[in-house]
Amino acid sequence: MTETLPPCPECSGVYTYEMGALLVCPECGHEWSPASAPAEPAGQGPAAGVKDAVGNVLADGDTITVIKTLKVKGSPSGIKAGTKVRNIRLVDGVDGHDIDCKVDGFGPMQLKSSVVKKA
């Protein structure tokens, strides 16, 4: 089959599959109809509308707040919920990590937009 299915609109997972008339993401469990899937213009990249966990559209330079405590390899405590991160940059990251930033005390890293909200 040469048809490629679109990535999940919720988590950007690439392992979507068809189940009847719906598309399903096995990573987050999101189901949607192919007709309602937004068509992404080629070459738009992350500027096409990255949204935070509550639906606010993010832009380069925004300040965000982490809404969930995140584990970080090599750190015993991780990033605590409520941590503010300034001056973010939107990128086409790996595994849904679409925010490039510098977190105080941890250094540069990438975060998923699903675990942050606009401050």
Automatic annotation (TrEMBL):
Protein YjdM N-terminal domain sequence ranges: 4-33
Domain of life: Bacteria
Domain Protein YjdM C-terminal residue range list: 50-119
Matches recorded under InterPro entries: YjdM (IPR004624), YjdM_C (IPR013988), YjdM_N (IPR013987)
Coiled coil: none
NCBIfam families reported for this sequence: phnA
Protein family according to the UniProt entry: Belongs to the YjdM family.
Name under which the protein is recorded: Zinc ribbon domain-containing protein YjdM
Species in which this protein is naturally found: Streptomyces pulveraceus
